[in-house]
Amino acid sequence: MFHPGMRFKPLFLSLLFCMSTFAASSNKMLVFIGTYTGGPSKGIYTYELDLQNGSLREIGLAAESPNPSFLAIHPNKRFLYSVNELEGKENGLITGFTIDSKTGKLTKINETSTGGPGPCFLTVDRTGKFVLAANYSGGSVCAAPINERGELGPDSAFIQHAGSSVDKSRQSEPHAHSINLDAHNRFAIAADLGLDKLLVYRFDAAKGTLTPNDPPFATIAPGSGPRHFAFHPNGKNAYVINEIASTLTALSYDADRGVLTGLQTLSTLANGPVKGNSTAEVQVHPSGKFVYGSNRGANSIAIFAVDASSGKLTHVANTSTRGKTPRNFGIDPTGKFLIAANQDSDSLAVFRIDQTSGKLEAIGETISAPKPVCVKFLAKN
């Protein structure tokens, strides 16, 4: 028979150990890095970010996967999804993985077709029941169901874009480059680089269907090449980064009607045009006070302050990413740190974010990473 005091000391020490382990782990984030494979890269890699000092260390290969160039984490934090840009294939893939939040390892669940070539972006809806993806080469968007085990089913929606824009070298056909859902999970915004449009779809969260809104799109200036898109936390503003023109456009958003209206467009280049530059990622700081965009060619992060009343932007600074071709970057959920993924120098660069100005301060040396092109965070258990 168990005596009340018989195992008190070991049990107490065990509880203390568990509590201290949890406290230590709560200051660590897993950082998942999507890559282009070939050469040294084999798939998705995991790193650990220390939220106390911004140090970043490599854990290792999380899962082998071909060209997992963009990642999304399920709302329940148990699953991760990647696109697979399969060169020369008629259709790309979405692949699902279970996450070991202690080790950062990923275990493949299954995969499904995106219905078109060159998938480059995906997101999971707020119910966790559907994943939406954009096919760059195919100029289309799709949605696929997710069951309670994280398994992917065949498409619940597929929409082929049509048309062109003024830059015939880049915009002779549609190129869907991203798809984002609003805070109410009612509307999906697809930025199409080839059309100079932000196409707006009504999203049915029960069926996973996409239906053109009325009006069906917002137009960006001809030759801009809208690429990635981000909502402001206030739900009233949004921002799109334009790859071809190296600009950032601020918009107002009517969440009831799904209508976007342009407010302002600014250059992402502080000192005038840079030959060969193209922009890539845009993100809003969790506080809503700042917007960040990446320049490939100039190899910098452009920093903008947000006017709280209008959502308009003021340029603050441009900071070198300490590497080549920052195709993507990530801001950790606490808003303390930004990690830039330098694709062509095989490196990750960590920056501390000044919470007052939004400026970036480099931390330590860059960290080796093979062809990094996506950065996603998850709290470590």
Helices and strands in order, then pairings?
Layout: H1 8-25, E1 28-35, E2 43-50, E3 56-64, E4 71-73, E5 79-84, E6 93-99, E7 106-113, E8 119-124, E9 130-135, E10 140-145, E11 157-160, E12 176-181, E13 187-192, E14 197-204, E15 209-219, E16 226-231, E17 237-242, E18 247-254, E19 259-267, E20 278-284, E21 290-296, E22 300-306, E23 313-320, E24 326-331, E25 337-342, E26 347-353, E27 360-368, E28 372-379
Antiparallel strand pairs: 1-2, 1-28, 2-3, 4-5, 5-6, 6-7, 8-9, 9-10, 10-11, 12-13, 13-14, 14-15, 16-17, 17-18, 18-19, 20-21, 21-22, 22-23, 24-25, 25-26, 26-27
Number of domains: 1
- Rounded average pLDDT: 94
Give the strand line-up of the largest sheet: 3-2-1-28
Number of helices: 1
Beta-strand residue fraction: over 45%
Keywords:
single chain, 381 residues, mainly beta, Methylamine Dehydrogenase, Chain H, 4-stranded antiparallel sheet, 28 strands, 51% strand, disordered N terminus
Give an overview in words.
The chain has 381 residues and is mainly β. It has a single domain, classed as YVTN repeat-like/Quinoprotein amine dehydrogenase (Methylamine Dehydrogenase, Chain H, 7 Propeller). It has one helix at 8-25, and strands at 28-35, 43-50, 56-64, 71-73, 79-84, 93-99, 106-113, 119-124, 130-135, 140-145, 157-160, 176-181, 187-192, 197-204, 209-219, 226-231, 237-242, 247-254, 259-267, 278-284, 290-296, 300-306, 313-320, 326-331, 337-342, 347-353, 360-368, 372-379. The strands form 7 sheets. A 4-stranded antiparallel sheet has the order 3-2-1-28, with no helix packed on it. Strand 12 and strand 13 form a beta hairpin. The longest helix is centred in the N-terminal third of the chain and has 18 residues, at 8-25. The radius of gyration is 21 Å and the shape is globular. Residues 1-25 have low confidence and may be disordered.
